[in-house]
Amino acid sequence: MDKKHRLTIPSAWRGVVGDPKGLCIMPDLDKRCLRVFQQSEMDRAARNSKLHDRTDPKVRDILRELGRQTQDVEWDAQGRFRIRDDLVAFAKFKEEVVMIGTSDSFELWADEVLGDVSRVDQRRLREAVEFMGLFKPEPPAAPSGAPAAPPAAPPSPGGG
């Protein structure tokens, strides 16, 4: 991250987002990092919000809070985007920021908050692989005209 709080998205990741070049940044709900996701996800949430009564003070408070704590960004020609100062302070960013892809989004971590990213933790990796169903065969295709079999439920995050 530079002194203006700009980060560069790797070009391969920019290709996944596509056009428009919009992203949304918000504090993670559990960890001291930022979650970055496609603007289209926030657009979907905005459409869903129209299902609620906008005269309800609680609904207005929720929408206001979401707007207050999120930031919409577009990257420039070099793939850079600027992170708001309050979000930089929340995540404790200094200079080194670690980007971790999480399937449909990515997280931004301060190097010192994340810890030793080079450490291999096979137990946690096994949990993640099993939860995501990696390396498991696809279920057989249903015969023509027959309903497809429902996907197998992933194991619980605790491994049980």
How would you briefly describe this protein structure?
The protein is of the alpha+beta class and 160 residues long. Helices cover 33% and strands 20% of the residues.
Structure description:
The protein is an alpha+beta fold and 160 residues long. The chain has a domain at 6-114: Transcriptional regulator MraZ domain (Chemotaxis protein chec), CATH 3.40.1550.20. The protein is built from six helices and seven strands, in the order βαββααββαββαα. The strands form two sheets. The chain has a five-stranded antiparallel β-sheet. A two-stranded antiparallel ribbon has the order 1-5. The radius of gyration is 19 Å and the shape is globular. The termini are far apart. The mean pLDDT is 82.
Question: Beta fraction of the residues?
Answer: 15-25%
- Helix percentage: 25-40%
Q: Distance N terminus to C terminus?
A: 40 Å
Any low-confidence stretches, pLDDT <50, length ≥5? none
Identify the overall geometry: globular
Structural class: alpha+beta
SSE run? EHEEHHEEHEEHH
Rg over CA atoms:
19 Å
Largest sheet: 5 strands, antiparallel
Q: Give the class-level CATH name of the domain at 6-114.
A: Alpha Beta
Mean pLDDT comes to 82
Task: Draw up the topology in text.
Blueprint: E1 6-8, H1 11-17, E2 22-27, E3 34-38, H2 39-49, H3 57-69, E4 71-74, E5 80-82, H4 85-91, E6 97-101, E7 105-110, H5 111-114, H6 122-132
Antiparallel strand pairs: 1-5, 2-3, 2-4, 3-7, 6-7
